[in-house]
Amino acid sequence: MHTPPDNRKPTFFHMLFWNTLTLFFFDSALANELHIAVAANFITPMKVIAADFTTSTGHKAILSFGSTGKFYSQIKNGAPFELLLAADAATPAKLEQEGLAIPGSRITYAIGKLLLWSQQSGFVDDKGEVLRSGNFAHLALAAPKLSPYGMAAQETLSALNLFAALQPKFVQGENIAQTFQFVTSGNAELGFIALSQVYEGGALNNGSGWIVPANLYKPLYQDGVILLRGQNNPASSAFLGFLQSEKIRAVIQQFGYELK
């Protein structure tokens, strides 16, 4: 698997280290609010992490969930986000290059996994052969232009030589959360979602699914970065330090993500 080059500045990680050390010695009078834009695949773990962050540091995370592509447009247009947790590595890197994110602050916080899933038990086999059977009316996936998970789904279908045949059955969500809703509501019998949306305790918590082999799509490196508006908020670097603590890395793994 290709690992993207790491050009981050070590001085920033020294700063993260010291911020992490101070998490348990904060003065609540100095607590800040932190506005974070979070990729939709990370909703469930992020709610757990944000609550723990407030308990541990006193800082309060104000969360907005959505598609990475849409967040990029909003940030370009002045949205008041201070930190971005994207579903890819390209968007945070692009924001750095465009002067809208703090150079050297970017980290890879998770590596996502794509899942073909149905809420019906036994509907999706463990090799994904249901895609070739065509015994379904609708297949949900996130819009590839907005969602890295949607792009991964498109790459998977292309690798399987099924894209053209199944395209008439596509039901596209704006983000992976909406795609998940299409399947749970019955508007699509199955769909490509993030494994984290239905993964708990080392197994799927309901329905049936096929964890798509990683060689069928480009790695879903998910990067976080401090945005220009967050450069003077100490909660920004404190959160990235917290996100890299062993305790929180273990939480992220519990939801089916891999770590770099």
Please explain how this structure is put together:
With about 260 residues, the protein is of the alpha/beta class. It folds into 2 domains: about 10-110 and about 220-255, D-Maltodextrin-Binding Protein, domain 2; about 115-210, Periplasmic binding protein-like II (D-Maltodextrin-Binding Protein, domain 2), CATH 3.40.190. It has helices spanning about 10-20, 45-55, 70-75, 90-95, 130-135, 150-160, 165, 175-185, 235-245, 245-255; strands at about 35-40, 60-65, 85, 105-110, 115-120, 140, 170-175, 190-195, 200, 205, 210, 220-225. The strands form 3 sheets. A 5-stranded mixed beta sheet has the order 2-1-3-12-4, sandwiched between helices. It has a 5-stranded mixed beta sheet with strand order 7-6-8-5-11. Strand 1 (about 35-40), helix 2 (about 45-55) and strand 2 form a beta-alpha-beta unit. It is globular, with a radius of gyration of 19 Å. The N and C termini lie close together (about 10 Å). Mean pLDDT is about 90; it is low at about 15-20 and about 20-30.
Largest sheet: 5 strands, mixed
As a percent range, the share of strand residues is 15-25%
Structural class: alpha/beta
Task: Using the coordinates above, name the CATH class of the largest domain.
Answer: Alpha Beta
Oligomer: single chain
Going across the biggest sheet, name each strand in turn: 2-1-3-12-4
Radius of gyration: 19 Å
Low-pLDDT segments, ≥5 res: 13-18, 20-29
Task: Give the helices and strands as they follow along the chain.
Answer: HEHEHEHEEHEHHEHEEEEEHH
Provide a count of the helices.
10
Helicity level: 25-40%
Overall body shape: globular
Based on the coordinates given, report the CATH architecture of the largest domain.
3-Layer(aba) Sandwich
At the third CATH level, what is the topology name of the largest domain?
Answer: D-Maltodextrin-Binding Protein, domain 2
**Overall pLDDT:** 91
CATH superfamily of the largest domain: Periplasmic binding protein-like II
Number of domains: 2
Tally of strands: 12
Our measurement of the CA-to-CA distance between the termini, rounded to an integer number of angstroms, reads 12 Å
